[in-house]
Structures are given as structure tokens and as C-alpha cells.
């Protein structure tokens, strides 16, 4: 029985690794045409589906191709795709969401775990968990018709903008961070808190010097989970970010993110355009992996110290 249990556990872990590797390989193979055409310059190029003149070398290389218009009366051109704008939009909206949600989520978790009476804690805790279960498209509709006009009244600019998308995204990830952090704080042994109180510590000091250090790993886990959710969110951001391929001149300007670009353009994309979208998805996979890995190893390293 022990051997069967061990093999099942090993199989479960292996399935996760196989899925991760298969996603990486699929995205890489599907984006090979765009990678060979644009190289790593795709990351720094703000152009998306723009026609640019062909060089002499490119004219010799691409005599006939669907992506090039070679008419006698027109200057030969090619369609260029670049991922800078969606990448910037994804990173900025995620940063705004984390910056907005983190302090509020920590405050909610502290209140529910250590300050609120049990009956209030239970009711608010259920409300937080229900908030986490609301579909993202509902957040998008609420943000578009109610929240966006309020943000415009305060900061001006456009109703659909990077700021609006980031703040609504922060509202979406807030319940995940709050619920996981609260559960992590509740694992702190009572004897540690009682010992601190016996030594004359205040509630604030107990929370700061006992509960937070003990539950650091769980708090970091909640941030990483919220970070992954924010990087990949599509529907709510599609309602609110503006969906235009323009670098944001200010926080209240519209732009686009990688998931939104994929959702809006994948249906009609063909050839090099489809490969470029796969390249964007590949970049999102790499960015998510790098950002989450840095956050995980950096914070966990600090915890071990």
C-alpha cells in the first residue's frame, strides 16, 4: 500500500511537469515563424500589424509570400508585428493591481484573524470568499459601467484606461490574497501569542513581531498566486484597458495587454499574424515564469534568513 501511494504521488507530480513542458514546447513551435522573422527585437518593437518597406535583401528572400504586398505600382512592403505595447500594458496593469490590493488585503486578513469578533469575522470571511468566486466578466461590466466613470471624475483622462484596468484587477485579486493570508495567520500557535502578551506586548506588536514572521510563507504564497492571476487575466481587462496598440502616455491612457491582444485578434489571425500571437503567448509564459520565480525565491530566501 505504501508503494502504491508513493507511485501515485510521483505520477501526480510528473503530470504537472509534463503539462508545463508540453505548453512550453507547443508555444515555441507555434511561434517559430515569428521568432525567425522578428527575433528578439519583437520584444522592443512597438509596431503591430504595420506595413513597412522591404529592404533589397528581403525582396530577394521573399519573392512571393502572403505577408508581403508586391504590386508593380506600389512600394513593396511587409507586415511587421511587435510585442512591446502588450508587454508594457501587462506589466504595468499587474503592478498597479498588486500595489493597490496588497495593503488592503493585509489589513483585511489582520482584521479577520486577530481583531474582529468571531461572528463578524465569519460573515466578512464568507463575503471575501464569495467575492473570489465572482466571474471575471462581472468585474469587467461593473468596472466599465460604474467604476470607470468614478475614476475619470477623480483623475480625468479616459474611462477605459490602464489605471482603471489595474484597479479593477486589484479588486479581483484582493480576495485571494486576503483569504490565504488570513488562513496563514490563523495557523500561528496560541502559545506564541500568549507568551508575547505575557511579556507585555501590545496587539500591534504581537501582530508585527509574532504573527507576520510566523506566517510569512503563506503571505508570500498569496502574493504569488495573485500575481499569476493578474498577469493572465483577460475578460475584465478587455472591458477596461482600451484595447488599443498604443504605449500609455499616462496612467489614465488606454493601452492593451497580452491576454487581451490574444483574445481580440486570435480568431481572425492567419500566417505570420497567428505566429506573432503565439509569440506573444510565449512571451507571457516566460514573463510569468520569470516574475513569479524571482518573487518566490527572493522572498523565500529572506524568510529563511
From TrEMBL:
<dbReference type="InterPro" id="IPR035906">
    <property type="entry name" value="MetI-like_sf"/>
</dbReference>
<dbReference type="GO" id="GO:0005886">
    <property type="term" value="C:plasma membrane"/>
</dbReference>
<comment type="similarity">
    <text>Belongs to the binding-protein-dependent transport system permease family. CysTW subfamily.</text>
</comment>
<keyword id="KW-0813">Transport</keyword>
<keyword id="KW-1003">Cell membrane</keyword>
<feature type="transmembrane region" description="Helical">
    <location>
        <begin position="84"/>
        <end position="112"/>
    </location>
</feature>
<dbReference type="InterPro" id="IPR011864">
    <property type="entry name" value="Phosphate_PstC"/>
</dbReference>
<comment type="function">
    <text>Part of the binding-protein-dependent transport system for phosphate; probably responsible for the translocation of the substrate across the membrane.</text>
</comment>
<feature type="transmembrane region" description="Helical">
    <location>
        <begin position="7"/>
        <end position="29"/>
    </location>
</feature>
<dbReference type="InterPro" id="IPR051124">
    <property type="entry name" value="Phosphate_Transport_Permease"/>
</dbReference>
<feature type="transmembrane region" description="Helical">
    <location>
        <begin position="217"/>
        <end position="245"/>
    </location>
</feature>
<feature type="transmembrane region" description="Helical">
    <location>
        <begin position="124"/>
        <end position="148"/>
    </location>
</feature>
<feature type="transmembrane region" description="Helical">
    <location>
        <begin position="160"/>
        <end position="180"/>
    </location>
</feature>
<keyword id="KW-0592">Phosphate transport</keyword>
<dbReference type="Pfam" id="PF00528">
    <property type="entry name" value="BPD_transp_1"/>
</dbReference>
<feature type="transmembrane region" description="Helical">
    <location>
        <begin position="277"/>
        <end position="299"/>
    </location>
</feature>
<feature type="domain" description="ABC transmembrane type-1">
    <location>
        <begin position="87"/>
        <end position="295"/>
    </location>
</feature>
<keyword id="KW-0812">Transmembrane</keyword>
<dbReference type="GO" id="GO:0006817">
    <property type="term" value="P:phosphate ion transport"/>
</dbReference>
<dbReference type="InterPro" id="IPR000515">
    <property type="entry name" value="MetI-like"/>
</dbReference>
<dbReference type="GO" id="GO:0005315">
    <property type="term" value="F:phosphate transmembrane transporter activity"/>
</dbReference>
<protein>
    <recommendedName>
        <fullName>Phosphate transport system permease protein</fullName>
    </recommendedName>
</protein>
<keyword id="KW-0472">Membrane</keyword>
<keyword id="KW-1133">Transmembrane helix</keyword>
